[in-house]
Write a structure and sequence with these properties.
single chain; Transcriptional Co-activator pc4, Chain A; five-stranded antiparallel sheet; 10 strands; disordered N terminus; Permease
Length: about 180
């Protein structure tokens, strides 16, 4: 898959819409493609959301929002992906404090010279995989999944970050988002 490829699998019981504009979209094991090359990020000043948006197609983005502690070991947040004609959201992504997304993205930023293969971070309904690509870019594949087998669906969207300063800034934004004091 190339930059900005979006994949859709089985759309049962999820806030997911496919418009005719995507073209080759099919339910079940179907796929839909959207080109979205380089990315930029945006953070609300109060730290309540992080948005990773495509610079070439601002309608393609990943949004992290509504972060709150569940207990002393876990936190929860919402993740949304959007592209032309598609919107998918997971309402309760649960992550462990000690093995959080911040450490994963900070590790990617620290290895700005590159690495071999894919690195993966997982939570209950979200997976983020990172592959170092040529010319100092990182391909981030954000995959959202349904909560149960009866609610089986999967959506993936890829955003690309510059391995140096963009990844470093994204890591800082995610740290602020996940580790801000409760409201």
């Amino acid at each position: 898959m190339g930059p900005g490829v979006l994949t859709l699998r089985d759309s049962a019981h999820v806030e997911l819409s496919l418009a005719n504009a995507i073209g080759s979209a099919r339910h079940g094991n179907g796929m839909a493609g959207v080109v979205a090359r380089s990315s930029m990020r945006r953070v609300r000043e109060d730290g309540t959301e992080v948005v990773v948006r495509c610079q070439e197609d601002p309608g393609v983005f990943v949004r992290l929002t509504d972060c709150h502690p569940l207990d002393e070991y876990r936190l929860a947040f919402r993740v949304e992906v959007q592209a032309e004609g598609l919107c998918a959201r997971t309402d309760t992504v649960v992550a462990e404090w000690y093995d959080d997304l911040t450490h994963f993205v900070e590790g990617l930023a620290a290895d700005f010279r590159g690495w071999e293969g894919a690195r993966v971070w997982q939570a209950n309904r979200v997976e983020l995989s990172a592959v170092f690509r040529s010319r100092g870019h990182v391909c981030l594949k954000w995959t959202l999944r349904g909560a149960t087998l009866a609610d089986a669906w999967e959506v993936s969207i890829e955003t690309w970050q510059e391995a140096g300063e963009q990844m470093k800034a994204l890591a800082a934004d995610i740290r602020d988002f996940l580790h801000r004091p409760p409201a």
